[in-house]
Design brief:
About 70% of the residues lie in helices and about 5% in strands. The chain is mainly α.
Length: about 180
Amino acid sequence: MQVYVQRPLVARTAGKRRLGWNALSLALALAATIVGGQTAYGQVTQLEDLVPLQQLETPTDDLIRLATAYTEGLAELENANLSVETLNSLRPNAVVTALEIRIAQNNVRAAQRKVQLFRAMIEKQLAAAEAKLEILRWLDAEREKLQAGTSAKAGGKILTAQAVATVEILKMILETK
């Protein structure tokens, strides 16, 4: 069964012409199929109007704070490991209690958890940023198709460039050791 979409948005199992509309068209077409092949009517809404893409952007300040917190967590882990090593090396010649060693080992585990948490957050942010970038690239391609042969300029390239930068920054943060 093929679904056709025409403007104003009419999805039906048989229709006049086929256009490449967005997910809203698909949802209406599925709704028409579910209710027994009846015609479904709707209004075309730009994806940007449904979910303002600026709201999906990770602000640069947040990226800076995330990068700073992650690198500080890495430093805490290194310092905690250094404390354990130092206590273990001093133990034969100096009085080092078991409690001091256990506290140092707890600090290592706490720092490891902190780094793992930040790393997981960064990985999730990266996955979301990559998904957003894919959507923006698709939207850019759709805009170019719709504006082919017109004097209109494609808008959204700035958002795509910002999304690329966000993905690259998150990858750089993850590469920090």
